[in-house]
Prior knowledge:
This protein is an alpha/beta fold. It has one domain (5-125): Rossmann fold (3-Layer(aba) Sandwich), CATH 3.40.50. It contains four helices and five strands. It has a five-stranded parallel sheet, sandwiched between helices. Strand 1, helix 1 (13-25) and strand 2 form a beta-alpha-beta unit. The chain is globular.
Amino acid sequence: MTKKNILIVEDDKDLRESWEMFFNNFGVDVHTVTNGMEAKEIINQYPLEIILTDIQMPLKDGYFVLEYAKSQRIDTKVWACSGQLFTKNVPENKYHFDKILTKPFDMLNVVEEIISITSENNANKT
């Protein structure tokens, strides 16, 4: 069975650590970074199944993470989580996140959904 790799891009330290704790309890390799520039490095290094990114962050934001992941033509789902979605004035169809989570949300439910998706993906690869 292939180990699941998930990337969390979140500038809030407490939230980032909470994500990491939840995913570690499910045996997932979770990579955490604080902004889109750091995310770019992880995207280049690991085969990721899901990227969970905040929208508003310093340096490079969640839109950058989405654009970069899609530009690499990798088969990775990109989920956005934010209290204020689509804060930029952009055409409605420009950003296609695979899922959008509006804060507040139940973190355990999200983690369980991601674990379910990654388990299905691994089953389909065998």
